[in-house]
What we know:
By secondary structure, this protein is mainly β. It has one helix spanning 54-57, and strands at 3-8, 14-18, 36-38. The protein has one helix and three strands.
Amino acid sequence: MPIYEYHCTECGKDYEFMQKFSDPPRTVCPDCGGSLKKLISQCTFHLKGTGWYATDYAHKNSPSQPAKKKEDSSTPETGKSEKTETKSDTP
């Protein structure tokens, strides 16, 4: 159920009432009997689930993201390529 905020024009108090969407707006202050004015307040809004962030819908190698180039396997210190050697036990 939504929470609606009201302001009394007579006593100046603010109120919050839980009301159904179909309920009529309140018009009488519960404390002084003055007239209530409905306030517009900031609502809480949460985006849940997938698809709300750039990382959720971005595809690899899309036109907006250039493809990653295959890097050279040489080490920066020596400039030589590193090779993995496998030694066998047979002579």
